[in-house]
Queue: 4 jobs
Job 1
Amino acid sequence: MFFENYKSELIATGILLLVLLIIRFILTTLITKISRKQGINLARIHLINRYVSVTLFLIALIIIPFIYGTKASDLIVLFSSVFAVIGIGLFAIWSILSNITSGIIMFFSFPYKVGDKIQIHDKDFPLEGIIEDIRAFQLHLRLENGDLVTYPNNLMLQKAVTLIEKDAISDDDIASI
């Protein structure tokens, strides 16, 4: 009975999901190819691909209710309530979101990569070391004395950074870290 009543909606939902899967495949393939040409770490590629998948999933969650005939005014009430709760929660963790956003920006336009020796010009805490890893929230910097410093991504975009030596460590050294 359910399948007979909602046959056209189920078909439209299937088509939407198929289109979004094709878009996801195209985007992840494109991101992977561009990233490998630029020598970006495989873990960072997977992270950005995960962001693409979650974004497409959220788009599907927004479109599917319209397929089943939900009115925009009903969805506005639902989304405003949900966004109010999420907004309060996100305000409490804005620093984490700032670092994630910075991580995405750094993925596409960061001029330094793993293995480069850099200097961060911070008047309170100047650093010089080799980039070991660039993650979603922070950058791992190995100092000359052997200490490992995790530096927040949002500060990397706010501070002046100087490239001292390109590819200061080899790919074998990176793999062993």
Note: Residues 148 and 174 are 14 Å apart (CA to CA).
Job 2
Amino acid sequence: MKTDDFDYYLPEELIAQTPLEKRDSSKFLVLDKKTGNIEHRKFNDIVEYLNPGDVLVLNDTKVIPARLYGIKEETNAHVEILMLKDLGSDTWEVLCKPAKRIKVGTVISFGDGKLKAECISVKDEGIRQIKLIYKGILLEILNELGEMPLPPYIHEKLKEKDRYQTVYAKNLGSAAAPTAGLHFTKELLEEIKAKGIIVTTVTLHVGLGTFRPVSVDDVTKHKMHSEFYMMSKETADILNKAKVEHRRIISVGTTSVRTLETIMSLYGTFKECSGNTEIFIYPGYEFKAIDALVTNFHLPKSTLVMLVSALAGKDKIMKAYEEAVKNKYRFFSFGDSMFIK
């Protein structure tokens, strides 16, 4: 299975640069994974496709203002870091640019020394482990000095920080938003619940995998970076009951999919747990946890195109993407939505 098999043509002007004014007004492509039938709707029509008893699983991770610009103390050279993973005790895994300047012992200063970072370990692919030095509350400092870590294909400045957060974001720790959830409003979620759909949450802190392209020709040789996930007992109980009663489990976003499938693969059931996952889902994978998926349109040759192809079949996904391009859907993080039912 070749990475090039998951390529598709995308005109650059279809890459969404800014969020729509109304979250739930995006286009909504509905794909029947059994028949391949495609419908074109608006996102707030999603209520029509959900049945009483369905369980909708949201990822409640919250994005931190994780992009920081600083200078090396010894040379005043400019450095950019992207905070990826909290390792505990003020130690973080970060992506550095330019990485070659950052060696063990290097100290980077941000905001005239309000925050400092000392490199304590050098990893591959521009990754470093740093120890943070500061006084006060880290999140307050990041809110002052940091920027929302928008993906590299977005060139416009974000006017409102909260537009790169879901309305239900709660658990801080992501380097990127779980973008399928950006389409939901609080009012739409209330409407969904009023119809008898159960809404529950898991947490997966989105990390480096979101920013890393697949660089190998053979799909099976790609290695995913690990991301932290967490499931509560309440969510596990809801999901196990749905499984027993043969009710649909609908994942909002590929991050929720990876959490649910990781837990089911490890334990054969849903349970209260946390850990790190490197699960890589591509065609041939047998889904154990989910029945349907709300998702955005993903980058060509990405692990996310591979994941949705595993769920609906590569040919059906490529046809749906072709339709989306023809109908001028907006793609990627701030783009339009798709429901694989």
Note: The chain has six helices and 17 strands.
Job 3
Amino acid sequence: MLEFLQTYYMAIIWGAVLVFAIVVEAQTDALIAIWFIPSAGVSLILSLAGVPIWVQAVVFVAASAVLVTLSKLFFEKFLRKKDKDKDTRTNMDTIIGREAYLEEDADNLKGTGTVRINGVIWSVLTEKNEEVIPSGTLVEVKAVSGVKLVVAKK
């Protein structure tokens, strides 16, 4: 048994690295150890072929680095935004320009004001900070600021 361990100790180590990388990758939903699986497999084969330990280690590190770099380039290509400068439009854009009647006085200083659009009650801000718009007034949505609508008298 001792002779077997002395002969194949690097194969056992590479096998352990391979199994460990597989277990880690199986337990996560992110790419954590995927690159080390083929690298450890190649180093395991090299150790069984009697290649020196330093070559096995260099092959493991180099193969892992190449795989990490290639996967980074691959994912960047497919995950990069098509036009970084182009604004992404959302459903909130459909609210801009809509008209509604204020259900509560709109006063930025007091933090009051609501409108109902499509059955949803929205908090509002007036376009001019010092302006107070009384309830019942017809307003137009000019913009969206966070979770509030910016309105102005129609």
Note: The domain at 91-153 is CATH 2.40.50.140 (OB fold (Dihydrolipoamide Acetyltransferase, E2P)).
Job 4
Amino acid sequence: MIKTEKERQATEMSYDKYDFRYDTNDYQIIFNRGLNKDVVKEISRIKNEPEWMTEFRLKGLKSFFEKPMPQWGANLNDINFDNIIYYMKPSDTNKKNWDDVPSYVKETFDKLGIPEAERKFLAGVGGQIDSEVIYHNVKKEFEEKGIVFLSMDEGLKQYPELVKKYFGTVIPYNDNKFAALNTATWSGGSYVYIPKNVKVDLPLQAYFRINAADFGQFERTLIIADEGSQVSYLEGCTAPRYSSESLHSAVVEIIALPGSKVQYITIQNWASNIYNLVTKRAFAYKDASVYWIDCNLGSKVTMKYPSIYLLEEGARGEVLSVAFAGNGQHQDAGAKIIHVAPNTTSTITSKSISKSSGRATYRGLLKVYPNAKNIKSSVKCDALLIDKESRTDTYPTIEIEEPDATVTHEATVGKIGEDQIFYLTSRGLSEAEATTLIVLGFVQPFTKSLPMEYAVEFNRLIELEMEGSVG
């Protein structure tokens, strides 16, 4: 099919931006494959961690071995934990000065556009390759306000008491099999602390990159928003394509103290060989607000359900989830919101697109505890099927244990209508352009929630995913 100029421009973006890799021969440390107590102790020793963290890791390892593989979602039975490398150290880490970053790391970040983004519209940025954060910096004007934005490893070193107070309290070491695995093997990630009444008017961003084959990346993020503070945190995730599978299993814990506001945005574009199995959860206290904005593109399998526990009156939670499942992909995503306290509100909005035999699943939980009166919540799940070979599933769970609650649920499954295609093609668009335009309109609620630069990138990724859907 010969493309028009408009079609060529719409799909000129290439995975080459993400599908590159560097030789690991110059890495400082590469562990042997497999996981046991010695591996966990060695990770902790390399990082010179306090004894309590080593013991915490070992508790996580024990729980990981004891818990069976989950059978209720996507198929995870092909994961070979003995074939995974659990720690790699590329080079000197945690550089704050860009001039000190190794040249190949600079080249990696340049290809991903991170330095330009940092200059233009970020308050701070961190970049992790495989197991370690290589570059981390926060702009001086924000640092002077008392904002702490470090790698998780540096956060543990510089603020050990605060980390010990909160680490593993939102997501316990034995919460689930993959949270336990992360607890045992975590490396890198972000530690964020926003002081009382401080508002960060530019986003903080972390970028997570898997470079090596047969690798497991297990970053850990802890965000503490003190009373009356406000912060927006963005993360991006990519990896090159390999013939064998790799594993990404992160843990994110958010503590939103009274009156604070936290927005957490994820745009993942993993390669099709990645198992992406992530646990993310927030505790929202009195009058606090937590917003998860979650984009799931790429990967072989994604299982991710950002959760918010509304623990005190006036707390608000919102999750906006978008998933795109292409050939050979299963996006099992959604949200969980738990109303523990009265006078709390929540919204869950899920959008999914399936094409070329891809499978998208919404899996969610809305729970209202007894005596949590005057609850207002709405759940909306919309699924779009591009072709007959694709599949979508919805598993909404709603548990109401308090009669004084207002809860609505709406779910739709649809296909792109011939009348829509006819209308757009009659006005000069090709069928491929028309289909892509309809999909972009379908995900517009998500796009509108992103900073402009990220909205442009997200739309380009959708356009690239749609290439070849027609004709």
Note: The chain is about 25% helix and 35% strand.
